[in-house]
């Protein structure tokens, strides 16, 4: 048991470090790119042009209808077959960004639709164009509504990045796997990895609460 | 009533509008002279709000013409171009039934949003003008608060100031007091009456007949998508010619009879 405790303590920092240098940057980069993509897809989905909204609908449908692991493997192991070789890190960021783009698009679309029609009208009557109204009036209000669901998307993403270990990206879980294979202490190391993911997510939930409070300042309670 | 030689600011001819198979406007004609207050009264569903919304492009009529003195002149036989619609919006500003203030902006930010972002007025000038207008309606000390921190009457006064700040040629009011608690109606009507007395040109859709009687130069009674009767408030309220007008006034003025 003492030996187990020692292994636990000795591997704690390396696994956390794997999280800090692998999991967190992977999640942050993918989320940032994914959100930008999601906003574009949400606006396309809301377009009156049927071709444009159709493309967005198709994209969302493919992303939500196929496993993330399969998307990741297609990009990393599949694309080389057509001569497109992408390194593990960029592959992972592309896959996760595309994934977030599909899921968050629906969240953002719903948030935009939740802003009352009167807000668009008020913006138009003071002379705003559609894009100015969207930027100045609608999106700030939609942002508030979408923080809780987008936080969930982000927390899911943080955990999903463990899949990147399967395409050789060194992140939290891959570090734990390597120590486990070396020490043959699978139960201990995988529970430890789980604990560290959990701690990361607890910190993120705290951040979410603070962000919601900040964005809530103009809402009646 | 305004002298007949006063210049016509806006004239509407043959305005028609259907929503699906429901024809809500069946050919509306009227004009508004500069400095004149026109009120639209009538039962709900009579089309008066649709008329108002057509005047600044929130609804697009299916037929008819709208002509502002100095432009634009729009014939709805074909869909208006974006530039025409924007030009029309430039001429007027709207006060909504449910104020529609921007909840994520302070009172002051609400008021200067149009002048700074859209009209590109220098910031210092926009802020000074907005502060002066807020002062006028007694809300100077509320400038840094958010709309939800104000009473309904205060919110609506900010809504009026937001419209005034744009210095439109025409102010449009869509039932500005209908959503208010009864004890808050007076403060809002008071502001609108003052603006009328100052010479602002306005079209007001309202259920407040007392207000229409005191502030309007002309009253249009609408029912079923047409203007049934029009005239000076004294004529309409004391001596309506049409049976439909009489019935409507009776229902509102003596609801228990």
UniProtKB/TrEMBL annotation, chain B:
Which keywords, in A-to-Z order, does the entry hold? ATP-binding, Cell membrane, Membrane, Nucleotide-binding, Transport
SMART domains assigned: AAA
Q: Which domain of life is it from?
A: Bacteria
The listed locations are: Cell membrane
> Would I find Translocase among this entry's keywords?
no
Its main localization is: membrane
Topology class, membrane? Peripheral membrane protein
Q: Which GO terms describe its molecular function?
A: ABC-type amino acid transporter activity; ATP binding; ATP hydrolysis activity
ABC transporter domain residues: 10-249
Annotated InterPro entries: AAA+_ATPase, ABC_ATPase_HisP-typ, ABC_transporter-like_ATP-bd, ABC_transporter-like_CS, MetN_ABC_transporter-like, P-loop_NTPase
What is one term from the GO cellular component aspect held by the record?
plasma membrane
| Family matches, as Pfam families | ABC_tran
* Stored Gene3D superfamilies: P-loop containing nucleotide triphosphate hydrolases
Name of the protein this chain belongs to: ATP-binding cassette domain-containing protein
Origin species: Agromyces kandeliae
